[in-house]
Structures are given as C-alpha cells and as structure tokens.
Write a structure and sequence with these properties.
Elements: E1 5-11, H1 23-31, E2 36-44, E3 60-63, H2 71-85, E4 89-91, H3 95-112, H4 121-126, H5 132-139, E5 146-149, E6 166-169, E7 175-178, H6 181-195, E8 199-203, E9 208-217, E10 222-233, E11 239-244, H7 248-261, E12 264-273, E13 279-285, H8 293-297, H9 302-310, E14 326-328, H10 338-347
Parallel strand pairs: 1-2, 1-4, 2-3
Antiparallel strand pairs: 5-8, 6-7, 6-8, 9-10, 9-12, 10-11, 11-14, 12-13
Length: about 350
C-alpha cells in the first residue's frame, strides 16, 4: 500500500442531532481515505455538538463564532487556530456559514496556505431557495411554483396562486407542509423566528423524494454522484435510512446540471419524482448531505476527492457506484466527563 500523505483538515457541522450536520460522516469518509493520513480539527458552534467528544474521529476541537458575527471575527479565530494546527484544508458543512467562507477563500489561501473547494459566490446565490424559479428557467429543470413572502398579511391571498397543501420553507433550513392558511401562519412564525425573512411558499408536488450527493470540479464535470431514495423519514423530513438506486434519468439530470452550472464542490440535490416520471428540483444544498457516507459505502469517497480538488490535484471522475446499499442511522449515548464540557465552554477548545 502506498504511503499516505499526512494532512490537517478542519471540519464544521459536528452536530449529530435528529437533523444531523454532515461533519461527522465527512470525517468518517476522510478517516477511510487511501491517500491521506488525516488529523481532524473540529470547528464547533455549540458546546454540545456530539462530534466534539468523538475522540476517535476528531483530534482537537475549537469553537468558532456564529456565522452572524461576520467574516472578520471568523478570520481572526481561524488565524489563531491555524497558528496552533497548521490547517491544510477546511471543509465547511453548513449552508448558513458557507457565505463567510466563500468571502474568505482567497485570503485564507494567500495568507495562510489554507485550501478550500467551495462554490463561487454566484453559484451559491443563484441556487438559494428564493432564486430557484429563475435557476430552473436558466438551467432547464422543472421547479415547483414558489414565491417569497415577507409578512403574514400576504397569506390569505396565497389561495389565488396556490392550491393546498403547500410547503412553507425557511431561507436556510426547515420546511413544513401546510393544509390550511392557519397552518401557514403558524409555520411562518416558527420558521421566521429561527431563520429570518423571507419565507418561501412552494407548491406541494406529489411523488417520491429522491436525493443525490454529488461533487463538481468547477469545470462542468461531475466527479462523483450517488442517488438514493429515502426509506425512513423523521418528522423533520430527514432521511433516517435510505438506499442507493439505479436511476439513469436522475444521473443524467445531475450531470446536465453540473455541466450548465459548472458547479464547484459538494452538493445535494433534493428532487421529487412524480408518478408521471417528471423530476422536480425542490432544493440544492451547497455542500455534502448528512448521508454522504452512503456514497463511501457505494465505492465513491466524495470527501476524499474534494480534498484532492482543494489541493489542486487532477481527479478522475468515479465510473460506477454500488446499487442497493442501505444506510441506517442510529443514535447512541456518548459518556462525557464534565471537565471536558467545562473546557470547551470556557476555553473554546478541547
């Protein structure tokens, strides 16, 4: 076996709650890399993100400021962490933080030699839920009818444009189905309190949800793509179990999208396939999904390939993946010493 190159990788998204972050599965994928011997630096926001305490996966964790603090405070913190750890690559895994990391991309590379492989600002902006209808027109892909609203006063008139049920979505996260205007009001208040405005109202499309985890090289090529169908869904709509599927049309749609957007980095496509065989794109997430480890199980290590791309290496696209592999998520209780919790809470590192 060839000698693996030693490398320090910082990863965010260490929460593994009922709506888990992608950090832990990304780290598991990197730990299985054939090319890199990784030291993992966790970047956390909350003191109870489980990844902080998974010492077999994460070597050292540092807290970083919330995305709302802006890029200057993030930069200051990253400088400190880099002085301790000499970071080679950062993989951000939350939609809400990616904007700041994109803004810092060139500076981190030039001043500290830290590499990332992220979407461009234009790619990041154009796939926002609020911009999806234009995105669909531009890239010739079906999108359910949707519109942005900014106040509950706009809810009664939705009947003129939508039929119930409809989907109420936050600009970053959260989506709930509403069957009545009263439910729209309730979802509007709950989601906007958490994620702010606008709220997106989207026509509910009947069908089967299929998802794709994919990696684009920024030149129009899909380096990897694995589609799955959700088998078991939590009340938050998150996949708790899923199976890799053989869907030629879905794969061809993914490759077309990669080509026309020239997508750079990881992405997740959330798609509804109707009984008539139409595919409606309901969301593009600008990072790997929390189920990305299924791709590794199917023979495509997307996080490892992302690290290669970040380091400027030429990466050959994966040719195939295993069909009929399932992932089943599970929860288990980590036992943590109070001293560890106190340390991350007071010193901001563990």
């Amino acid at each position: 076996m060839m000698k693996r190159k030693k490398i320090n990788i910082a990863v965010t998204g260490l929460n593994a709650i009922d709506s888990p972050g992608p950090g832990v599965p990304v780290i598991r994928a990197l730990r299985e890399s054939k090319l890199y011997d990784v030291r993992i630096i966790g970047l956390s926001y909350e003191t109870l993100e489980p990844g902080i305490y998974m010492h077999d996966l994460v070597d050292k964790t540092y807290q970083i400021p919330f995305p709302s603090s802006g890029k200057a405070s993030l930069l200051t913190r990253l400088k400190y962490i880099h002085e301790q750890e000499k970071i080679d690559v950062i993989i951000p895994n939350f939609d809400a933080e990616i904007f700041n990391f994109i803004k810092l991309n060139d500076q981190l590379k030039k001043e500290m030699g830290i590499h990332m492989f992220l979407p461009t600002l234009d790619q990041f902006e154009e796939r926002h839920k609020s911009n999806l209808p234009e995105f669909g027109k531009k890239h010739k892909i079906k999108i359910p009818y949707s519109k942005m609203i900014f106040s509950t006063a706009e809810i009664p008139s939705l009947r003129e444009e939508f039929t119930y049920p409809l989907v109420v979505k936050g600009k970053f996260y959260d989506a709930s189905i509403a069957y009545t205007p009263e439910q729209v009001v309730s979802h509007f208040n709950k989601i906007s309190a958490k994620w702010g405005l606008p709220i997106i109202i989207q026509q509910f499309v009947y069908g089967q949800e299929v998802n794709v985890t994919a990696l684009g090289d920024g030149l129009g090529n899909a380096i990897g793509a694995v589609p799955m169908r959700k088998q078991y869904i939590t009340d938050k709509g998150k996949a708790w179990s899923g199976i890799s599927i053989d869907d030629k049309e879905l794969m061809s749609l993914t490759r077309r999208l990669m080509k026309s957007t020239r997508w750079r980095g990881g992405m997740e496509l959330e798609i509804i396939k109707t009984a008539e065989g139409d595919y409606y794109l309901i969301e593009i997430n600008p990072r790997f999904p929390a189920w990305v480890y299924l791709a590794v199980g199917c023979g495509q290590n997307h996080p490892e390939a992302l690290v290669q791309l970040a380091l400027g290496k030429k990466v050959e696209p994966f040719k195939k993946y295993d069909v009929g592999k399932l992932f089943v998520r599970y929860s288990f209780d980590l036992i943590v010493e109070l001293a560890e919790f106190e340390k991350i809470s007071t010193l901001g590192e563990l």
